[in-house]
Amino acid sequence: MKNRNTVQALLTLLAASLLTASCSDGAAPEPPVLEAEEKPGITVVLNARIHSMDAGNTVFAPGAMAIAGDGTIEGIGDQDAISDAFPNAETIDLCGRYVLPGLIDSHAHLAGLAQSFTRANLIGAQSKEEVIERLVEFEATLPEGGWLLGRGWDQNDWPEKVFPSSADLDTAFPDRAVWLERIDGHAGWANGRAMAEADRDFTGDWQVQGGDIHRDEQGEPTGMFIDLAMKFIDDAVPPESPELMSRALDMATQAMVSQGLTGLHEAGTSLELMQLYRAKIEQGALPVRVYAMANGMGDALEWLCENGSFDDPSGLLLMRSVKLYADGALGSRGAALLEDYSDDAGNSGLMFLEPETLDEQLRNILSCGLQVGTHAIGDRANREVLDALERVMPEFPDNPGRHRIEHAQIVAPADIPRFAELGVIAAMQPIHATSDMYWAEDRLGPHRIAGAYAWTSLAGSGARLAFGSDFPVEQVNPMLGIYAAVTRQDLESWPEGGWLPQERVSRETALRGYTIDAAYAGFMEDRVGSLEAGKQADFIVLDRDLLQVPAEEIPETKVLQTWVAGKKVYER
Q: From CA 532, how far away is CA 527, in angstroms rounded?
C-alpha cells in the first residue's frame, strides 16, 4: 500500500509538471532572444484544441494563441501559422489540452458566497434535527453573545416538507440569537432571541408589502419570515468586520477561478461593496472580472446617476446596471403567480412592487442611462415586468437597452415571444431546473409547468439567453449548469431522457450562454466571451472536450488552468 501511494504521488506530480513543461521531454524552454522587429512580451500558448466561441464557433486543432504583455490576444489560429508569425515568443505547451474562453456567471452573488464562508453551512441537511446538529457544532467557534448565522436549509429535503418554527431552535439555543436563511435567500428562520433583538414588535396581524410574517392561530410570529419581511431581522444582525469580509472574498474568488469562472455579474452591489472591489484591484487581489449591478434604489444607484457608469481602468470592475426585485422564490411560495399555487390554495405569491412604483423605479434607472435587471420568477411577475418595460422603454430612446429579467423562471406561453420583441435578455440559471424538478410541478400543476425553465422556447422565439448559477444558492461549479442545460437530469441521470426534455439546449448554446452571450448581457462582448484577436486573454484549460465527451462526463470535467488578462490565476 505504501509503495502504491508513493507511485500515485509521483504520477500526480508528473501530471502537474506537464502543464508547464514541454510535453516531449519535460524540460522547460529556454527564454527566447527577442528580435528588434517583434513586440516584446509576447507569449504563445500552443498545442491545444481551442474552441474560440467566435461567430463561426471556430475550432483550432492544433491551435495556438499569442498573448501580448498587456493581456490582449495578439493572434489566434492554427499552430503553425501562429508559430510562424511569432517565431521568437516565449511558448507554453498545453500538451493537447482543451481551451475555452473564460466562463462568465451571468447571475451570482460574490459577496454572498464570501459571507457563506463565515456562517454555518446548512446545504443538504436532510431534517431539522440535522440542521440543529450542524448549528451546535458551528456554535463552538463563536464568541460569547455573537449571533449564530447560517444559510442553506431547504424544507423540501425534509421528511415533513413544511416550514420550521422558532420553537425548533429555542430549545437548543435559548440565549443566543439564531438567524438562518433558506437556500434561495428568500426566507429566513429566526429563534425567539433573534426576534427580540429586532427593532419591531411582531405581534398583531400586520404584514409588509412584498413580505410575509408567518403567524400561528393566536397571531404570534412563528419565526418564519418571507422575502421583504426578512429585513426586520437582517437589520438587527451585526455586520461582519471588514477584515473578515476581505479574507472571505479572497476565498470566494479562488473558488471561482478553480472552477473556470473568470467573471460574474454580481446581482446586487452596494456602494460599500463596490469600494471593497476597488480596494482589491489596487492590491492586485481581484483575479476575476465583476460586472456589478447596483442593489435597487440605494446609494450605489445614486452614485451612478451622479457620476455615470463606472469602468475601472483595470477592466476588472464595470458598473452600469441596477438590480430590482419583482417577486419572491418558488421554493418558499413567494414567486408571484397568475393563479394560486397548486399546493397552497389562496396563495398566489408576493409582488414586491405595485405597477406604478415599478414604472417609477424604471424611469429613475433608465433616465440615468443604465441597464435594469429585474428579478422575476413567477408568471405574474414576468408579465408585469414585461408590461412595465413596454410602457417605459419608449420614453428613453437614448438608453442603451439590453434590459434583463433575472431568472425568468415561469413564463406564461403567451409572454415568451415578448422577450425578443422587447429586446429583453433572459438571464437564467439552468441548474435551478434540476434542483427544483422534484417539487416544481406540485407548486405549478401540469399546465403551468410547460412554461417553466423554458430555455429552448425562449431561444427559439429569438430571445438572447445568458446563463449563470445564482451561487451561493447553487454550487459555484459551472459544469453543473452546463450539464443541466443539455440533459435536464440530475447527477444520477434522472429522469430518463430529461425533465421536460423539449427544453434541453445544445452544448454550443449552453457554452454561449456562459461565454459570449453572458458577455453581451454585460456590455462586454468587445472585451471577453470569445477568443479573438484584440480581446482579453481570458481562457481556461480543461482535461476534456466539453463538446465531445459523453454528457455524463461533463460534471466530472476538471479545470487545469485559469487565465485572466493573460495572467495565470489558477493551476490545478
A: 9
